[in-house]
Structures are given as structure tokens and as C-alpha cells.
Amino acid sequence: MLTVRDAERADRAQAIAALTLAFADDPVLRWLVPPERDARVHATLIAEAGRVQVADVDGRIGGTCLWIDQRNAPSPWRELAGLPRWLWALGPRIGRGSRLMSAFARAHPPRPYLYLGTVGAAIRGQGIGSALIRSGLEDYSGTAYLESSKEENLAIYERFGFRVTERIDLPDGGPPVWPMVRPATA
After folding, report:
1. H helix or E strand, kind and range, residue 63
2. 145 in the Ramachandran plot: left (φ > 0), alpha (ψ -120 to 50) or beta?
3. Distance from C-alpha of 7 to C-alpha of 54, rounded to nearest angstrom
4. pLDDT tens-place string over residues 45-91
5. C-beta of residue 31 within 8 angstroms of C-beta of residue 175
6. CATH code where residue 87 lies
7. CA dist., res. 16 & res. 68, Å (int)
């Protein structure tokens, strides 16, 4: 049975493992870091997310979704405090990570909005990703935003009301990314 719930501290290792498996072939992650750094990147993303949801499939974590409330701009102090985590995660690719975040920041909608930072299902084709997105959006009527790193996933997000706003070609020969916005619903 599939149940979506807020993650607990005890879920952390399985949540990281689910994201690591789900994003093993992700073009942006492969451009950003070598595979041996994947778990560090996902651990850092989880540490910085405002809300972490997991899909519990018969007692095992089958997927993870990270939501970040963007009502207000993050304080410079909070961003500075997160820098050691990102240095640990990205290592010598920290400059590339900075260019990635700059490219993404220009595409974000005006505040306030809910940012779907990451959704990944360790088991594909079972509706886990959709269940996670549905759960995160069900009580939220404001603007929501995400970046899709795979063109084939655009249709999934469109079912939830997201629309592509542009295509970003990442620097240094990086892959394309599609920012998507779901307008506020009255």
C-alpha cells in the first residue's frame, strides 16, 4: 500500500537512497557531479528543504519529494550557513553549482510561491511521483514552481497545472532544463 506522509528523522537514509536511485540517470546531476557524490547532493537538498515528504510503500521509502516555501527571500545568513554543506556535496564542482543556481534563480517567479525542489521515485511507473506531487499541492492554492531536467517528464507536471515558461541551456555544455509554473488557483 502507498502512503504519502511527512518524513521523520528515521526516514533520512532511505529518503536519500530513493533520490539517489531515482536521479542516477538525471542529465543535470550527471553534468553537475560524478555519481559518487549523488548521495551527498541529496543529503544536502534534504537538509535545506522546508518540507520533506516520502512515499511509504509497504514500510519502505519508494520516493521522496522536497518542498521549499518561497514566501520570503532567504536571508543571506541562512545561505552563508548552508555553504559548508554545499562544499561537502559538490567539492571541486562548487563553481558549476553556483552557475546552475544563478541560471535557475533568473527563472523563478515573483514571490510568494511554493518550490517543488525535487521529486524522485525509486520505483518508476507506479504513480509514486504523482502521489507525492498531488499530496504537496492538495492544500496549496498559490503559485508553484519547479525545474524539469527531462523533457519526457513535462507531461506529468502539466497534468498538475504546471506550464513551461522557457528552456534554459546550462553553461559549460550542460543539458537543457525547463522551468515550469503552476499559477495560483482562486
Report:
1. strand 60-69
2. beta
3. 6
4. 999 898 999 999 999 999 999 999 998 777 778 888 889 999 999 99
5. yes
6. 3.40.630.30
7. 17
Question: Exposed, middle or buried by CB within 10 Å (0-12, 13-18, 19+), for 10?
Answer: exposed
* The pLDDT of residue 186: 67
Question: Helix-strand-coil percent breakdown of the chain, rounded to 5?
Answer: 45, 25, 30
Q: How far is CA 15 from CA 51, 127, 184, in A?
A: 13, 17, 29
Give the number of other Cβ atoms within 10 Å of residue 73's Cβ.
9
Specify the amino acid at residue 33: V
- How many domains does one find in the chain? 1
**How are beta strands 163-164 and 114-121 bridged, if at all?**
unpaired
Q: In terms of pTM, does the model score above 0.85?
A: yes
Euclidean distance between CA atoms 36 and 94, whole angstroms = 15
End-to-end CA distance of the chain: 33
State the chain's mean pLDDT as an integer.
94
CA nearest to 102, candidates 35, 19, 183, 168? 168
Q: What burial class does residue 175 get, using C-beta atoms within 10 Å of its C-beta: 0-12 exposed, 13-18 middle, 19+ buried? A: middle
For 122, the domain range is 2-182
The H or E element containing residue 67 is strand 60-69
At 6-41, the pLDDT tens digits run 999 999 999 999 999 999 999 999 999 999 999 999
pLDDT of residue 122: 87
